[in-house]
Amino acid sequence: MTEPLVVRREIQIAAPPATVFAFLIDPEKILRWIGTEATVEPHPGGLYLVNVSGTDIARGQFTEVIPIHRLAYSFGWEGRDKTPPGSSLIEIDLIDQVGGTLLRMTHSGLPDAEACASHEQGWTHYLGRLAVAAAGGDPGPDTPRKS
């Protein structure tokens, strides 16, 4: 059996889980680290919609919401055949630790190695920005990466 195509990232954030969680579900806080527009309905079945770059729109649906501990939502891109809206799954766990929060993210259901590499690059970039913003810093203007 082959290993499924999965992106896994962990990042330490110098903020409590409740603060980090707010940066994942509050549209105003989301826009501090990713995107130009965000609409989120953080309850099972609720909409996840983030216009990441002005042209790249991520869309999915929340499947699990456990306040300050865990989020899961389907994910994909409008207008992309290989990774359409809702075609993959993002799971985020927030673990309370001394000095902050360990964020553990798994992105599964990606179609191929190229999509995995691209999403891994994106997650590394954006989780770094999230860590700065949630800790009270300013990650600065986002410089979209070239695909």
Automatic annotation (TrEMBL):
Belongs to the AHA1 family. Residues 14-133 form the Activator of Hsp90 ATPase homologue 1/2-like C-terminal domain. SUPFAM superfamilies: Bet v1-like (SSF55961). This is Transcriptional regulator. InterPro entries: ASHA1/2-like_C (IPR013538), START-like_dom_sf (IPR023393). Keywords: Plasmid.
